[in-house]
Amino acid sequence: MMELIGSNMAPIMFASLIIFLLIGYPAAFSLAANGLLFFAIGVWMAPHSAGTISLDWPLLYALPERFWGVMQNETLLAIPFFTFMGIVLERSGMAEDLLDTIGQLFGPIRGGLAYAVVVVGALLAATTGVVAASVIAMGLISLPIMLRYGYDRRVATGVIAASGTLAQIIPPSLVLIVLADQLGRSVGDMYKGALIPGLVLSGIYLSYVMVISIVKPEWVPALPKEARTLGSGVTSLFVAILATVGMGYLFVMWLYPTHGDNADILGAALAILIIYVAAVLDRKLKTGVMSHLTQQVIMVLIPPLALIFLVLGTIFLGVATPTEGGAMGAVGSLALAAAKGRLNMTVVSQALASTTRLASFVMFILIGARVFSLTFYGVNGQVWVEHLLTSLPGGQLGFLIVVSLLVFVLAFFLDFFELAFIIIPLLAPAAEKLGIDLIWFGVILGVNMQTSFMHPPFGFALFYLRSVAPRGSYKDPVTGQMTDGIKTSQIYWGAVPFVLIQVVMVAIVIAFPYMVTHYKGKPIDLNNVKIEIPKMPGLGGLGAPGSPGSGGLGAPNFNILKTEPKGN
Which candidate, 84, 130, 330, 408, has a CA 20 to 30 Å from the CA of 402? Predict the structure, then answer.
């Protein structure tokens, strides 16, 4: 009996950890306590394990070094930087300006407000990377407007919650930073790999809204004319967009000979800067070249786009590391808040407090995970997991399907940080052994973990929205009419279609890996590779083929010896 328990210590340890977490103990303390408890049990059981357990008390001396390795990990510095950036931007009123402007732009069409929420959710994801900030901001600003103009409550709440979770997969997502760190891969490569799936998922959300506007138009009515305070002027906006595209193309042609592949990003940045300056001058000088709507769209959209370029553009260009990009983003958010006149000590202190809480939360989970992994590896847990997963039928596809189902189920009970720190280190070795690209694997898990925010009963995005959505009837301050509140069941039912969309997105990423693996660049055709060795005088045959009296690297060339016929 003792040998049976000793040889199966790894699955017993993992099952007990899941039980601790389900009971409700904090993840960091559950990991550390579980690791220390089973370390003591493992030392006692080692003689009865037939060599399976390799634990002894002196092994605990390795813990301080493991803790120090966590604390000096520069990659994780990006987490507090991006958190600070997101909270400052949320306090600066950028979300409010974006929702108002984009809502006015899409207002004349059915589902316009829902389209605006998805677009703004993607923009906030690319600038803040924080789900809570996105969901709460859009819930406070756009939900009352959607209720005012007769949107179905399930559609309204579902769109807001789902759009907020785009911050999980669109860079600079905090989850992608953690996944890259746990998988031992570059954060920049993870960002490049996740960008297209994030944009595709946003497009699917927009397509879902479009289908609803066709099938159930009464659920997503257009904004009435009296609510469109920015007026018309869409033609002027199209002209401005065409002018920007034209200038961008000319700049790319001009910069390509000197900047190569980076010319497209630099050319687009110059064109956008010029159109922004033109809009500011047009408003200041009151020349009337652009419509009021066009001016507002340009002046509201360009600053967050500039911040996105400052953060992601510099990372993709190789100018900055993700940590440096996060630092620049934090400074840029302070500059935007100051430009809006909303930068004060209250905003800064709130942002610093929230950032400290999140960074401490992540650090404690990581330290607990180090204690757990020390014991888990000491009982050959990694071998058990690897044998369990690599023996699944179906090879890579079977592995990815089973892992996706496992993460989807665990996401009902664990949040994304707990999943990343507990599950990923166990899955990564098996994935690498099966020849799966770990960036692709990380993006699949990132899209999958997105569902942890959405599916009942523990979806955090649903809780965030519940905290700001009106519970009972209230008097609308604009119309003066009584409006019914939002039931919790309506929030849950509204999330269901978007959870299904996210599951479909996981299948799409598995089926089309090049959506992610494009980060490697174009594959090299080995049939067309030509190796040329430069001429190197003095090294004989290596650089001067045929030079008399010498061979490669100065060796004698015996091939020049000639046999002369003997004379008669």
Answer: 130
